[in-house]
Amino acid sequence: MRQTLHSEQAPEEGKEERLAVNPTEATAPERRLSLRGIDSLQLLGPGDQYLKEIQKNFTARITVRGHEIILHGPEPELRQLERLFTELILVLNRNEELRHADVETLINVVKRGNGNKNAGSESASAGAAQNSRPVIVYTKSAAIKPKTEGQVEFYNAALKNDIVFVIGPAGTGKTYLAVAIAVAHLRDRQMDRIVLARPAVEAGESLGFLPGDLKEKIDPYLRPLYDALQDMIPVDKLRRYLETQVIEIVPLAYMRGRTLNNAFVILDEAQNTTPGQMKMFLTRLGVNSKAIVTGDITQTDLPSTAQSGLVQVREILQGVDGIGFVYLTDHDVVRHKLVRDIIKAYDHYSP
Predict the structure, then answer these.
(1) pTM
(2) How far apart are CA 322 and CA 17, in angstroms?
(3) Mean pLDDT, 10 residues at a time, over the chain (351 residues)?
(4) 268: helix, coil or strand?
(5) Whole-number Å distance between alpha carbons of 223 and 158
(6) Which residues make Cβ contacts (< 8 Å) with residue 28, sequence separation at least 6?
(7) CA distance 288 to 155
(8) CA-CA distance, 212 to 226, in Å (whole number)?
(9) DSSP conformational letter for 25
(10) CA 168 to CA 327: how far, in whole Å?
């Protein structure tokens, strides 16, 4: 099979465009994969030898332009190639290197169609739809991407707006996806830092009666944010980021009086903010900053006489340019399948 390489300047990146060809029609379906934060030399191989090896085994056209891989070809091959590149990136992240044998092995696995026994069925169609969703962050073991239509709306809103409010029940991935989007902005150097905040509201236990100093009392409230970060950033790098305050995880009260420039800011569990706290948080944003505010208005731990800032802010800021509101439902639950049933049962219960 004859193969050639074509190079030209990519206008927006000013970098070489590499084409591994066996081109299909210009009208063929297209798929784009981001290489931001990935060592493309290691992924594609010295002199693009891994890229050439991949192209020998597929008829779809593979173009590398700047920080993107662009695929043109029949839909079944696009799904195979996206899976292949995803697996290669995961191996690269896990082993910190990629070998020719890894490339050959994964090509064979993907070409054999492992895990695709239901091709053509409804479940295969759902899998294809999920495969077409953008990868936000690659970790050592997984590619984090939106899993539901609601999460896709959330992701798109975060790209389009400077402030996004995401309201939905437990288990819909609000916090996890918000952290992934922030990590992607830090990785791509679109932001200099990440600041994650939560209100430390007493839920059934008084802070004063908990053991330890202030940090030890507060840390349990912030643990979900640490857990999400540990999934997405290598331990040593995360420790360095926390020590140098490239990433900060703080109680909401610590935000007062600050101005955050070039920062991606997340306010989690925002249903537990008062209107004053919500206003205080939103006015911390400085130049070139973005914010995601997440919460579940059905799980407020505020005193019964207090109004939630998240409930009020919908009335005040709905329709303001640059601010987006996304509402997730039980259809977007990505935890255990019983979580969706639990949410429905509580919604229908009336004592």
Answers:
(1) 0.71
(2) 34
(3) 37 51 60 82 91 93 89 90 87 82 88 54 45 73 86 94 94 93 90 91 47 60 85 89 92 89 95 93 95 92 86 92 93 76 74 63
(4) coil
(5) 23
(6) 60, 61, 72, 73, 74
(7) 19
(8) 19
(9) -
(10) 6
